[in-house]
């Protein structure tokens, strides 16, 4: 797989988590509270500006879902290995309202996630 391009979305940011499967995988399924290995890229909804990318570091990352922002905890389970999913995550499921102390607080975030591996954790 190659690094995905995130298309700029028109209109106001959604107020709920939006899950859009771009590629349906056929491997093991990610489960709530499980462990995942992913490649991902994240951009700000309003500007389309990239703020983070595992592709940029040249390596995937592995972590337990329970340690991640709520939008990932809710948006990744059900994905299957080999899949690519886009998550559009409102601030309350990401880094909180503006002024919450994170540089991405108050921002709606868009991630494209490639699921490389999944386990029960």
UniProtKB/TrEMBL annotation:
- Give the reactions, separated by semicolons, that this protein catalyses: [protein]-peptidylproline (omega=180) = [protein]-peptidylproline (omega=0)
Lineage runs: Bacteria, Bacillati, Actinomycetota, Actinomycetes, Mycobacteriales
Chain ranges of the PPIase FKBP-type domain: 33-119
Q: Which InterPro entries match?
A: PPIase_dom_sf, PPIase_FKBP_dom
Q: Does the keyword Isomerase apply?
A: yes
SUPFAM superfamilies, per the entry: FKBP-like (SSF54534)
- Membership in a protein family: Belongs to the FKBP-type PPIase family.
Superkingdom of origin: Bacteria
EC numbers listed for it are 5.2.1.8
- The main enzyme category here is isomerase
The molecular function terms of the Gene Ontology recorded here are:
peptidyl-prolyl cis-trans isomerase activity
PROSITE patterns per UniProt: FKBP_PPIASE
Keyword annotations for this protein, in alphabetical order, are: Isomerase, Rotamase
Q: What is this protein called?
A: Peptidyl-prolyl cis-trans isomerase
